[in-house]
Amino acid sequence: MPSREDIHQAYLQGEEAVVTLFEQTIVQLAERVQALEDQVAKNSRNSGKPPSSDGLKKPAPRSLRKPSGKKSGGQPGHKGHTLKAVERPQHTKVHRVTQCKQCQVSLEDVAASGCAKRQVFDLPPVTVEVTEHQAEIKQCPICGETNTAEFPSGVTEPVQYGPRIKSQAVYFNQNHHIPLERTQEILTDLYDHSPAEATIIAACQEAEEQVTPVNTAVKEHLIETDESVHCDETGLRVEGKLYWTHVASTEQVTCLEVHPKRGREALDEIGILPERKGVVVHDGYTSYEQYPDAEHARCNAHHLRELVFVEEQYEQEWASDMIKLLVEIKEAVEKAKEQAQNALTDQPLADFEARYDQLIAQGIEANPPPPEPLVKKRGRKKQSKPKNLLDRLRDHKREVLAFMYDFKVPFDNNLAERDLRMVKLKQKVSGCFRTRKGAQTFCQIRGYISTARKNEQRVLEALEMALDGRPFCPSFLQPSAASSG
Q1: Which of 117, 60, 64 has the alpha carbon at shortest distance from 86?
Q2: Which of 417, 427, 428, 462 keeps 20 to 30 A from 134, CA to CA?
Q3: Percentage of the residues of the chain whose pLDDT score is greater than 70
């Protein structure tokens, strides 16, 4: 804002200087008001803000999906899942008829003409079993050497817990985000055994160590695979500081890493993007663009949210038309895939490109570049939200429409966001990680769990396999995992 001295100097210079100062002040105030209005107008539906930031005033839902016309629930032909009776139950209890309900005559000696059956599925009483391993000791009668038998692999302590109960402790603590004290309480209630918190932590660290070769193989696969690799990052509180959880994933594997930095330093240390040559899907964060060897594709879910914001806050028609165009292209690609086509024909491609360019031109016309300031400042000129979005859509057209040119490229980056969702849930439950080691352990185990789930492996079984020294590894990763081990 102009100081009293600035106003006085403009007054001394004459009417034109006063008008110029007045106009500049109005422009500055208008920009500040617009910025504040934009900030207030943003919510989880029209920006990248999480739903938890909406508070009690939730935005009205507005889906870009068209109604299918189908009723809710299972559709015709859908194979239902229900509890079915088994042919050979483990236990059978016969309930006898002892007397007639009508006349009270005893029926003890009357043979039954049939029986009605009902089956109850329940758990048997579960208790912890203790297995004692005894290693024989023998003395050689020839040389006098004392020989002791080898204990099984994994039996290393005089008293210890086995892989089943340890895998359940890891399952509760890492997969369901249950704090240590409550995990201890659950195990006590279920099995009348209360492992110490240190035992649960040690089990988690052991699981991390066992799954490391699998996660290493996942990294190598993400570098070489022909599938699109989804990348994203989210903040995480570790040791009272802001750290970042980075994800790189496909439909089959997930890699999670925690790092103090968000940008290129972290991505270089993780080591996937520096070596990747294939498609990388992301939200347009600048650090991802610094790897020119990769083929970049941008998330259109982000673009749709920003376009909704421009449509609502700035009431610009080009934004609503661009939303319709992107959705139309997406539907055309999905229809072509259903018809077993590998690409759109030349005519639809040319038509979509022309309409895209036309809408960008309309947007540029409605949002001209800001005027040159009288006093030049370092850095980029400050622009409006619509102009910034238009510049990205124009300058990165190929990346925005990558899903149209290559059917292997997805429309959005929702896969990476889904893979990061459990990290945010963990933070909501626990608030933060007290140590970086704890955060690393969580990310390594969660990445392994996500990979197991994507390959239709039960989580508890996968964790038990890991703690038994034979972690689950998808068949397409096994050669890499073996070499890593």
Answers
A1: 117
A2: 462
A3: 92
Q: Which residues contact 468 (CB under 8 A, 6 or more apart)?
A: 154, 163
User: How far is 325 from 45, CA to CA, in rounded Å?
Assistant: 19
Sign of CA dihedral 398, 401, 405, 408: positive
Q: Which two tokens stand for residue 342?
A: 């590998």
Q: How many residues does the chain have?
A: 485
Q: Global pTM?
A: 0.83
Calpha distance 45→62 (Å, rounded): 8
What is the rounded distance in angstroms from the CA atom of residue 296 to the CA atom of residue 400?
A: 9
Which residue, among 35, 15, 78, 478, has the nearest Cα to 253 in the 3D structure? 478
Residues 6+ apart with CB under 8 A from 404: 329, 333, 344, 349, 352
